[in-house]
Amino acid sequence: MIRQLTVSGFTTFLDEVRLEFVPGINVILGGNDSGKSHLMRLCYALCRWGEKSLRRDFPELWAEEERLRRHLLRAFGARQLSSLVSRRAAHGSAQVSTSLYGAKAPVGCVDLSFSFHREGEGSGLSIGIMPDRFLQERALFIPLREVLTLYPCYVQVGKRYPDLLDGPTWDLCCALEEERTSKQRPELEPGLRRVLRLTEALLQGKLGCESGGRFVLQRGQGGEEAVELGLMAEGYKRPGTLNLLIGNGSLRSGDTLFWDEPELNLNAAHLPLLCGLLLGLGEAGVQVILSTHSLFLLRELVIRLSRREGREIPRRFIGLRAPSELFGAVQVQSGETPDEIGPLESLEAEMEQADRYLRMPSLSHGHDAD
User: Fold this and answer.
1) 226-264, pLDDT tens digit by residue?
2) Which of 85, 86, 160, 366 is found 20 to 30 A from 210 (Cα to Cα)?
3) Domains held by the chain: number
């Protein structure tokens, strides 16, 4: 899991920003160009770099610097590391430090600090602080791009030309590959078993795999009705991805799940069930880091977290504001409630429209709207 991140000079984060994350639910809010996706992809790259459970001895520092460089490029789908340095960064460099932790790596053992420059590739990345050990826990990313439908094509492309796919998409395909190849399903922890049932309630069925490597939605008491993914509602496909990741043991307690806009293409009527699913993950010991534009989803999360069953789940809300004429850098605020991060443009616009709609005179009475 990721505990802390400090970054400056990185993409949209010009000034130094320090963020704290909790082991439960972390919600990143902000408008377009505020850096939500960049923040999530940076955290994901750091978590992926930190998970090397089978390593016993550390290789040379230069090899770790090169491995970290590759993880950053893959996470962002970038060709050059210099493109991740803010155009107005002081001295043309970016600085990043983070603290990760896991079951066998307590806080402080997996601290990392590094910097890289706009000029020079490869040798431009320098690690200042190396971890004492790596982690056994895993990080997974559910991106905006829906993966299940084109999964067979992604796998063929990724195995032959891995550089054509961004890192989170290819990593997700590799995790889904376990669904096709594993013959025995792992024994699920009770918390994750409950989340699995919630995903099946949302999908009104469960996802399975056909012999050709394509996934299908199985409905009916015996799963006799198989729905091709091309005929499946778009909003169900990414929750279906989570269904597969839990079912094949790719996502376990102690892991970190990054989910970019989980509400995408979902009917608002399904969002309460989605919130229950997210809180179930946090209760089961999965660190959830998600981004959203949805005021409905945000309010539903706050309602669920205020109830007795959600009060023990750690939560963190992070608000990002895009650079403006007044502030030349991204502004960041965080807290345990949305009220602590102040008003956000995207959420304020949604509330303002709701107020205008409620004030609108009834057309049935013959009044003209303002």
Assistant:
1) 778 888 888 888 998 999 999 888 999 999 999 999 998
2) 160
3) 2
Residue 63 CB burial class (10 angstroms; 0-12, 13-18, ≥19): exposed
Output the pTM of the full model: 0.89
Domain extent at residue 96? 1-138+254-359
Q: Encode 23-37: b = buried (16+ Cβ within 10 Å), e = exposed.
A: bbbbbbbbbeebbbb
pLDDT mean across residues, the chain = 83
Alpha-carbon distance of 147 to 365, in angstroms, equals: 49
- Identify the pLDDT of residue 54: 46
Residue 126 φ/ψ, nearest 5 degrees: -130, 125
185 burial class (0-12, 13-18, 19+ CB within 10 angstroms)? exposed
Q: So what's the pLDDT on residue 318?
A: 92
Amino acid sitting at position 290:
L
Residue appearing with tokens 């993966």: 147
CATH code for the domain of 263: 3.40.50.300
Q: Which amino acid type is present at position 99?
A: S
Chain centroid to Cα 332, Å, comes to 18
CB 259 within 8 A of CB 288: yes
Range from 65-79, 309-323, 356-370 carrying the lowest mean pLDDT: 356-370
Q: How many CB atoms lie within 10 A of CB 97?
A: 18
Residues 218 and 308 in one domain: no
* pLDDT interval class at 326 (50, 70, 90): low
The residue among 141, 8, 1, 7 whose CA lies nearest residue 77 is: 141
Bridge partners of residue 215, in order along the sequence: 209
Residue 364: pLDDT band with limits 50, 70, 90 = very low
Cα 35 from Cα 9, distance rounded (Å): 13
